[in-house]
Specification:
single chain, 458 residues, mainly beta, Jelly Rolls, 10-stranded antiparallel sheet, 3 helices, 36% strand, globular, binds fe (ii) ion
């Protein structure tokens, strides 16, 4: 508790070629790395895509820093090892499971636990080594990272705080991220997370081998959903001087390695480029929806997508279910019953979710794996049907649910399947769905003696 929070400045935009300098004149002009940079700074590039990626996809930034990041002792396996981080999903750490799964929120520990130690993998697919796959983690922590920074060599982190703000120091500057906001820390950036509110909990999506981008808008047009200008990148900020026992924690192949150095990695005085951490406030999302009939697919609420090479097939979509008006006529308004070739992991940041009356609470999670049926619980269905003739516009308020949706089939980590917060009764929420079927169709007729004669349509 009581960690310092300052007013921060941000740069607005998505995919921009940003530039920022903490000291006037620190940013070289005319070329990326002159022989001697202003103020004697070292020039260092961080590449988020291959050198030869097409220009429209190429991501890199130039960091002008007091000492280069190479200045550290050799990496050694961290002691103790982290037992619950996975980036290579196989039978040794995870299992397949087609059952609908739901977890209650995990307790935030009382013993000192920072973001790194409080992070644990729920499920995922693929491999960070092969640069194709994803992992879904959650975290529960109560103290900031001290004299250490994490560098995720495996992939991009998309952080979704559910309880407690995150004060994130990065090599490009600092981000203050509150529940209701998200942050993306691209692969390879060093960052350290402070917890100004103490106890904190949230969700993390990690993607291997690609980066998040804004979805195309197609016929929606040039505006709507998440606007580029609402994404905020940090401004340059740096620390100077000795930090005698600073530790770099490298997440590499799901394992943690540590290396000592005697200075802060946040020593970048100026930088420019389009490879950068950023944050986004979900309240700024501009939802679109049906305005007459039929329920739209949830993809209409995609905030960010991490694409595969197949057009329209995501490695991981980040989709939200924000407050919005429901106005559809003659239409079942909650989400439809569904089986999906994609796999759907859901979380709830605050409020309640429109398709579940109870059991899915803020900080909890659910996983409906590939072709596993799911949909509104019995109570939601019956309540909706009962109001079918009195449907007027209604507004969903005070809620923010989200989904990580992937074309890959996640395996679930052993500890998540054995967790005491796994809700073994989840299936019960649908068991009460009763048959409303009647053969009394419009072409049927009932004779005077009550005999039901099957109509031509049947
Ligand atoms: Fe679904």
């Amino acid at each position: 508790m009581g960690e310092k929070v300052e007013e921060l400045e941000y740069q607005s935009g998505f995919g921009n070629h940003f530039s920022s300098e903490a000291i006037a004149g620190a940013l070289p002009h005319g070329q990326n790395s002159p022989l001697v940079c202003p103020y004697g700074l070292y020039a260092e590039q961080i590449s988020g895509t291959s050198f030869t990626s097409p220009r429209k996809l190429n991501q890199r930034s130039w960091l002008y820093r007091i000492k280069p990041s190479v200045t550290h002792e050799p990496f050694k396996p961290r002691v103790p090892a982290h037992e619950k981080l996975v980036s290579e999903f196989d039978g040794s750490n995870s299992r397949t499971n087609p059952t609908q799964l739901r977890w209650r929120p995990v307790d935030i520990p009382d013993s000192p636990t920072d973001f790194v130690d409080g992070l644990f993998t729920i499920c995922g697919a693929g491999s960070s080594f092969l640069r194709h796959g994803f992992a879904i983690h959650m975290y529960a922590a109560n103290k900031g990272m001290e004299d250490c920074a994490l560098c995720n060599a495996d992939g991009d982190f998309l952080l979704v705080p559910q309880s407690g703000r995150l004060w994130i120091e990065t090599e490009c500057g600092r981000l203050l991220v509150s529940p209701g906001e998200i942050a993306v820390i691209p692969q390879g950036f060093r960052f350290s997370i402070g917890l100004p509110d103490g106890k904190s909990r949230g969700y993390v999506a990690e993607v291997f081998g690609t980066h998040f981008q804004l979805p195309d808008l197609g016929p929606i047009g040039a505006n709507g959903l998440a606007a580029a200008r609402d994404f905020l990148a940090p401004t340059a900020w740096f620390e100077d001087g000795l930090r005698p026992s600073y530790t770099i924690i490298q997440k590499f192949g799901g394992e943690l390695f540590t290396a000592k150095q005697d200075f802060s990695p946040f020593n970048v005085v100026a930088w420019h480029g389009n490879y950068v951490p950023y944050k986004y406030g979900l309240q700024k999302f501009c939802p679109y929806n049906t305005v007459l009939i039929d329920h739209g697919d949830p993809s209409i609420n995609t905030v960010l997508t991490a694409p595969t090479d197949k057009p329209g097939v995501a490695l991981l979509d980040f989709v939200i279910f924000p407050p919005r008006w429901l106005v559809a006529e003659h239409t079942f308004r909650p989400p439809y019953y569904h089986r999906n070739c994609m796999s759907e992991f859901m979380g709830l940041i605050y409020g309640s979710y429109e398709a579940k009356v109870g059991g899915f609470v803020p900080g909890g999670a659910s996983l409906h794996n590939c072709m596993t049926p799911h949909g509104p619980d019995t109570t939601t269905y019956e309540a909706t049907i009962a109001r079918a003739n009195e449907m007027v516009p209604s507004k969903i308020t005070d809620t923010m649910a989200f989904m990580f949706e992937s074309s890959l089939i996640p395996r679930v980590c052993n500890w998540a399947l054995e967790s005491p917060v796994l809700d073994h009764d989840y299936y019960q929420c649908w068991i009460g769905l009763k048959s409303h079927f009647s053969r009394l169709g419009i072409d049927d007729e009932v004779t005077d003696d009550g005999v039901h004669k099957q109509g031509k349509a049947l």
